Amino acid sequence: MAQAQPEDRDAGGGQGGAAPRRWGRRLLRAVLVLVLAIAALAGVLVVRAVRMPSRQPPPPAMTGEPIALAPDAQLAAHLAGALRLPTVSGPAGPVEPRVFLELHAYLEATFPRVHQALRREIVGDYSLLYTWAGGEPALSPLLLLAHLDVVPAQVTAATPWTHPPFAGEIADGFVWGRGALDDKVAAISLLEAAEHLLAQGFRPRRTIYLAFGHDEEVGGREGAAKIAAVLGGRGVRAELVLDEGMAITQGIIDGIDRPVALVGVAEKGFADVAVTAQVTGGHSSMPPSSTAVGVLARAIAAIEADPMPARLDGVAREMLEYLAPEMAFGRRVLMANLWLFAPVARRVLAGAPSGNALVRTTLAPTMLAGSDRSNALPARASATVNVRILPGDTVDGVIAHLRRVVGDARVTIEAAGEVAEASAISPSSDAIFDQLMTTVREIEPRAVVAPGLVLGATDAKHYDRLSAHVYRFNPMRIGPGDLPRLHGVDERVAVADLHAAVEFYVRLVTRFAK
After folding, report:
1. Alpha carbons 77 and 55: distance in angstroms, whole number
2. Contact 478, 240 (CB under 8 A)
3. Beta-strand pair 477-478/248-249
4. In terms of pTM, does the model score above 0.70?
């Protein structure tokens, strides 16, 4: 047998060792390339976060002389007087119509200059429209909204009020009562601002309308809708419409330790959807394998398991773009690079009820009905699903989604009662929004101002066709402890906040109408 030459063995061994070395070098190069790519990506993310410009206007230089308003005690007393009148709305209209007329008389007595200089009209029996004629009628008018009605106030052993809801008491630095936040405070503050300006001899260049609906809490069909129809019939096209909706928050927006003033640029639509299961009824002693209640229960379970898709676009994305530059650096890196992290941000937002409502159309089963006897199988069982519609979605699209996810011929799904599509989205990057931002920062210089989405319904939806600039903002300060007070127990407003609210409206009117 021939002997292998030593040099052959050496060559073979050298070749066998070279392959692992080549693979090792390739692996090392791949790791280096990956490390460099990650470093480059990290650099891009950091640079984008560092260079992300603030969307806030410069700190405002207060214009003119300091505004000397009425004493805080007087502002508080005027609001307290309005809160003592229980202007409660019900589905069929005012619960006590005479109380609304008493409020009209109270406003006339409390704000005499307004009622001498402005033309007042009563619309829909109980709503008020004031016209402050401008010196240049060709200019588009300013339209400022509020509502006079309130929701009922339940006072029980389980829900005691510190002060009675309609006593209008002033205590501990607050004015207490139903309507202190929603929304008599805006009506009174607007009238205080007008009374002050009239006393100073102010004459607006553009016409100003003050429109106070009387049934906002039940949809505004007899109040705001009719006022909007009156103004539309007169050819009014407003420069700016401002209603309630959002506020100056403190301690509510994660990642920002400054006050955050959210200005609603849109509001969600709404619909009640009837989900009805129909099968054969009978006696409960001989139930079939599938009852109407069971069919309905499976339909509701399917709806909850398959929500409308979450979207990080529109108002939600605009809001994040305004807030991101003001956040701590770690959060800013995330928000400045939504091109990469949008799925993460969307999941984070969708993980909390408030954030979920911001990024998707919500579907909330709220009411159930079946048999009226425990031993009778209903032939029909039904549920109401309350839907809050994100701008970009539609009522028809929501119903199509529900029918698809339920997928049961025994279940009918139809809109029930009044529906409203989501509002248009007003601009958040033009001169009018900038002026609104500046006005907010004049009363709260540290505030971060950002566009927001109103999750509930306001009277503003009735005025969409009268202006391209419809905003929803109430210049009140709201903290986490105040959120349950809205439509809840112990509604109140700080006396100091009343002064800021009146000053806001004075500055807004002079900015837009001087």
Report:
1. 38
2. no
3. parallel
4. yes
Alpha-carbon gap, residue 393 to 427, rounded angstroms: 19
260 closest CA partner among 431, 434, 451, 501: 451
Residues 234 and 339 occupy one common structural domain: no
Contacts of 205 (CB under 8 A, 6+ apart): 134, 135, 136, 139, 513, 514
Indicate if 272 and 370 belong to the same structural domain.
Answer: yes
Nearest to 82 by CA among 107, 57, 63: 107
Residues carrying an active site annotation: 149, 216
Whether residues 308 and 347 fall in one domain: yes
Q: Is 371 exposed, middle or buried (0-12, 13-18, 19+ CB in 10 A)?
A: middle
Torsional class of 255: left (φ above 0), alpha (ψ -120 to 50), beta (otherwise): left
Q: What is the pLDDT of residues 429-481, one digit of tens each?
A: 999 999 999 999 999 999 999 999 999 999 999 999 999 999 999 999 999 99
65, two tokens: 């002389």
User: If pLDDT is split at 50, 70 and 90, which confidence band does 254 have?
Assistant: confident
Please check whether residues 412 and 273 belong to one and the same domain: yes
Tokens, residue 405: 């996810």
Spatial distance between the Cα atoms of 253 and 328, rounded to a whole number of angstroms = 12
For 248, 474, 479, the CA distances from 497, given in Å and listed in that order, are 11, 11, 13
- Domain of 225 in residue numbering reads as 72-247+458-513
Instruction: For residue 369, give the nearest of 481, 270, 277 by alpha carbon.
Output: 277
Give dist(CA 188, CA 62) in Å, integer.
Answer: 24
